[in-house]
Amino acid sequence: MKNHELHDNWEKTWSNSSNHNITVLGRYLLRRKQQTLARIVKRLKVSNAIDVGCGLGYSLEVLSKIRIDAVGIDASNTAVEYCRKRGMRVTRKLLEDEKKRYDLVFSDGLLEHFLNFSDYVTHLGRISKKYIIIAQTDHEVPITRLLLLLESLIRPGMNMYEYNFRMKDYITAFANHGFNIKLTEGVFFNGFKFLVFEREEIL
């Protein structure tokens, strides 16, 4: 799927109000992910951050609560307006158009939708002064495969397609762009992983 088609699909997803309703399991996973993100970021010495592909602002909410000066960007008008109504600083913008640099660059579930995600790793690295955190589905874990199967049966056609990249694929890609893995933390029987990367120091 081409990038502009993906952006159109995200807009359709967020403009469909029924997709704002999270299942009971979804709410549980969201809480766990928010708790994990807060715990990880508190360990890092950062004062500002950007959430790339911020969606409805669930991660921005966390960053704000722990007093991080955070902004978000998203390709969806609907998502941007939803966040702004909740008082968040969000702009409709593509990652490749972002010019500022931040202590922390965060993205949840973005890279797995692109067959060739290396360009996005380049841009995430370009705007990061120090850290990058990505939250990704781990398709190698049995619980993930079960959840995705159940989701496809309960809500057919409502999920964006995900390529089944391995965590090793992400780690290698970021290492090739000068970011070393600092921490890996799993959520919900390791079905989701937070990968924390730190910019390599050049001596």
Please count the beta strands (DSSP E, at least 2 residues each).
Answer: 7
Task: Look at the structure and give the mean pLDDT.
Answer: 89
Distance between the termini: 41 Å
Radius of gyration: 16 Å
The helix/strand class is alpha/beta
Unreliable segments of 5+ consecutive residues: none
Under CATH at level 1, the class stands as Alpha Beta
What's the tally of helices? Answer: 7
Strand content: 15-25%
State the domain count: 1
| CATH architecture assignment | 3-Layer(aba) Sandwich
* CATH fold group: Rossmann fold
Shape: globular
Strand order of the main beta sheet, please? 3-2-1-4-5-7-6
| Helix percentage range | 25-40%
**Succession of helices and strands:** HHEHEHEEHEHHEE
Tell me the major beta sheet: 7 strands, mixed
CATH superfamily: Vaccinia Virus protein VP39
